Amino acid sequence: MLPEGLLCLLSASLAFAQSRTPLPINKITSLNTQRLPQQPSFAIPVHDTTPLAVSIALCSNASPNPRFFISNISNWDSQDDPGPSNLNGGIEIQLTDGQGNWTGLFPDGGILAVDRNGAGAVAFDVAVSDSEPFHQTLKELPLFGDTTSNQALLYSPSFLSVPPFKPTYPNYTLPAANLSQPELPASSSTPNFTLILSRTDTTKNIPRTGCFLLGPSTQKSGVISSQSVWARGSDWRSQFLMAGLTPATNYTAYVLQDSTKVSGPIYFTTKSAAFTCPLVHSLPFCPSVGYAVPLPSPPNAATYDSTNLPDTISTPLISYLANFTTVLTTFACGRDWYSPIVGCDDCQREYRSWLCSISFPRCGEPSPASPDGFTAVPAPPSATGIAASLAGKGVSSPQQVLSALLPQQTRDPPRNPFFPPPTTPYRQLLPCIEQCYATDRSCPPFLGFRCPSTSFNAGASYGIGYIDSADGDKGQGLTGVAQDRYGNVWCNLI
């Protein structure tokens, strides 16, 4: 039998060996550098069957920032803390924009050590997860819809794909012209999305973490007029309508998922105070329409949607689509094939997108940094829709791509004849020619659908050469996209 003194010493040693505060799994632990244990380290539990993800997010801004070191050798105090002077078999978790993570196995547990690094009071969150990291930057960005002078329409990243509609022969039935929103699958849940909107001049050099963006240090702008789940094209998203914004102001937007996963930032500028076009959105028969259109202000509402859009606009559009579908189905859809790649369902879907884009002309404004940056009017027959560079306008500056904006006067007939004549001048952002090409490629030849030629007058009604080159090389246009994360929108693509 061991001497009593040795037993006491062994008991004390065992108690000391488990003295580090353990970090729970699948739970966030909120900490502060001024209230750390005397030994500033934490025990990561044993987990040898599947990896654990350890993530960190700074919740306050400081310089310098604390540093974080992790080891998966063991969590016993006989194992020294990893640190800046001696990693002791560990590594440093590098922070980017205020957050970082590391994933690995912990067969004997592990240690997360905090080096204050001379920082003052810095709040931070730590989470250990048995799946993906709690704190991370999502790859997919929020989607910018459009703005008015004091409103913005924004969308979360896609959280679920809308199952493609694929009818089969002999019961080959296409979706109704007056399309309804699909039902969200009962087995799917909508993530908890939160939109954070701030003036861009207040968001420089801040941690891009959920706890910081939700905290009091972030100067938030605007109010959410409405938030809903919307099937936009092939994806389910959360749709946010913001109000109370300032005209001609740069804003930065983030969307948080479950308060810890960060999507963004994206940037945009509200329109000038003189901008008069209202937003149109939430139209089930045109689910991807979500931008400003040249209509009078809606009575007793801030925007147009399916509840207040005039029937004089929606009824002809739905009728056109119904007639097109009738003609399309004179072909033996599903039994005969006019293409090994596409079918009648693809044709109707692309035609709907094209019809909606030309039936709802989009209003726009040139960038505040380039007020003269829009396509000249009237457009010559050979116009490409690509605005000239500033250097081409006789200004000594680097080449700059300008949006396909065409000024519209009150005397000009509206592009959609069912729209009322405009009461004020506006600038129309032309549809991307690729919208027309997608329909042409997807539909059978007997329909006779054709797009205007880029060699003649296509540039008078479409933006040419932005996504694809003017010669049709895919993705080789001046920008490669219709819009980017910085609020630049070159042509309208829905």
Automatic annotation (TrEMBL):
Keywords: Signal. GO terms for biological process: calcium ion import across plasma membrane. The keyword Nucleotidyltransferase does not apply. It comes from the Eukaryota. The keyword Hydrolase does not apply. InterPro entries: MID1/Yam8 (IPR024338). GO terms for molecular function: calcium channel activity. Pfam families: Mid1 (PF12929). Residues 1-17 form the signal peptide. PANTHER family: AEL197CP (PTHR39142:SF1), MID1P (PTHR39142). This is Uncharacterized protein. The lineage of its organism: Eukaryota, Fungi, Dikarya, Basidiomycota, Agaricomycotina.
